[in-house]
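During the reporting period the student researcher (J.K.) took over the structure-prediction task from the postdoctoral fellow and processed the backlog of single-chain submissions. One of the processed entries is reproduced below for the supervisory committee.
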Amino acid sequence: MLLTMYEDLHDKTTLGLWGRIACAWALAFAVLHFYWALGGSWGLSVSAGPLAEERPGWFVVVGLWGVGLLCLVGGVLGWLLARPRPRGPAGQLVKALGWFVCAVLLTRGMAVEVLLLTEVAGPEINVSPEQRLWTLLLWNPWFMVGGLVFGLAARRFKRAESPSGGVA
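J.K. obtained the following structure tokens:
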């Protein structure tokens, strides 16, 4: 009985934890992109290289504002994954989107990591040693952590319990 009480309490307190973490992860990334879009430069040169200094219009619109807005959408998805799963297609769609974001973030992080470590792209790629180091140690792991968090949130996304204690 004590174990059942612990599991019930543990499940209720951690049910939406990964969704909340996914939301926070996405919002933190959105804030960083909006900071850069508004002219901030801290950390941008080591992630975007020459684009950070040149700041062509397409890069600011798509790469900074656009990615920031996409991260806000990811924050909403994380928030939805933290809530009880609604019945029907809406709940299935949220869960599927959670798994999709997981796959995209993990693939992006691992693919760029492998490309940089194996130097498959060759010398044609203009990546400075500093940019390479920051990408390997910070940016790619950041994407992989985000992918894992969204995956855990999708995995833990459960239906709301009905007032009688059963699953709705």
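The committee noted the following: Residues 1-9, 162-168 have pLDDT under 50 and may be disordered.
J.K. will present the remaining backlog at the next meeting.
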